[in-house]
Amino acid sequence: MRLPRIPVFALSVLVALIFGLLPMPVWAAGFKPWWLALVMVYWSLESPQYAGLGRLFLIGLLADVLFGTLLGEQALRLCILGFLLLRFRARLRFFPMWQQSLAVLALLLNDRMVVLMVRGLSGEGLPPWDFWIAPWIGMALWPWLFLLLDSVRLSARGKA
Amino acid sequence: MNGNNRSGPMFGEGSSTLLLLLYLALAIVLMVTDYRTDALRKVRHSASLLVQPLYTLASLPKQISEQLSDDWRSHEQLQAERDSAEKDLLIARAQLDRLQSVQIENQRLRELLGGTRGLQMGVQLANVVDVDLDPFRHRIQLDVGAQDGVREGLALIDASGVVGQVLSVAPTRSTALLISDPSHGVPVQVVRTGLRVVAFGTGETDRLRLPNIPQSADIRVGDALVTSGLGGRFPAGLRVATVANVRPDDTRLFMIAEATPTAALDRSGQLLLLWTTEVPLQTGPPIELADPAALRAVPTGSDAIEARAGETR
Predict the structure, then answer these.
(1) Fewer CB within 10 Å: N-end or C-end of chain A?
(2) Nearest chain A CA: its distance from B161 CA (Å)
(3) What angle do CA A30, A36, A38 make, to 5 degrees?
(4) Is the pLDDT confidence value at B269 over 60?
(5) Which residues of A touch B4 (CB under 8 A)?
(6) Chain B CB contacts of A129 below 8 Å
(7) What is the pLDDT of residue B302?
(8) Domains annotated on chain B, with CATH
(9) How far is it, in rounded angstroms, from Cα A3 to Cα A160?
(10) Which residue has the higher pLDDT, A40 or B48?
(11) How many CB atoms lie within 10 A of CB A95?
């Protein structure tokens, strides 16, 4: 019964990582959302046993290796995100979709602050203004991503 | 996995906070170690081998679309492209011929001076892998790595100027830092006046910043900037940028200039990796007395640009 659900989780992480790597034209560089976070928000809300802090940490490390960020940067960001989600999960789950989107925006903006802090401390200057676009794109994508992942997960479970 | 709680949202708040703090501490320790020391380089190196297939997967869509557009290109288009390429080649050849005579003259003068050090440049073609690592860090992936002889710190150029330098090397891939990255600086020289400055990246691909230029310095809009060869990373004389504007800085004691890179920094296409090997100092008997065969033995690889760009100061 539970077996076919694990591939859906792994697959969604894999696709999120690959989407993160897809090239964008230079002018649209800031528009790329943090796919990994969006997918993790989904799993934290819907079946939190797949998105425990330990697992988020490991996935973050994998992303760090892949994207060449400081080892631990995305792990830290994902852990903060996961903790907040776990904390407010009971409320977030029963929000209407638009409120959930707003919550996702808040989480992603908070994450941007964390990035700013980490990169500031490692001696990188202030990023350009389009650094702040990605959370809004994430918010706009959230409902669609939610519906997509939900249908994929439910149909995978239905088959078993 | 150790961190998952089967009890769902109802587990004790305290334990999850503790867990969070534990992971945060772990992440911070990792980051500081990674930032300050080289201890994690080996780990990163071997881990990057594991994720290679992901890069390949991510660059597939772009490759396929390029392949398709290549296939669909019309006969006339190809013909026109070939014609213009042929013309470019002709012009480049003519320029090269002229350069060669200058180079021979240069070499003769150098020999007259006796024993100035020459640098030999080797080149290697590298393709940019179409993956986007981080939109706010100007880095690119190259499809050559340690197995192809790539080392950290090699200069990276395209047909019209300096692009960046190699930052880290995996066995089959390497990552390069573009000159437009905010953390990158390249020592440059104004061609017209010989003024030496440093061009820093700004985080925008079409702009470099040249701070702290003395008020008395002679620098104008339109001046060409080439690498000065100071610092030893970039060979001297490569084109870098053109000055776009000059204005006094906030202190009014210095001037600050902005320049537009000549290379196409939009992270795609083919690039050249440049490396310089020092021709060993010629010590021993004076050149005239030395065995002429030994002099010729100075390596001149067939695929190497035999430009002896020496530092003459």
Answers:
(1) N
(2) 19
(3) 85
(4) yes
(5) 48-52, 54-55
(6) none
(7) 38
(8) 117-279+292-313 (2.40.10.350)
(9) 8
(10) A40
(11) 14
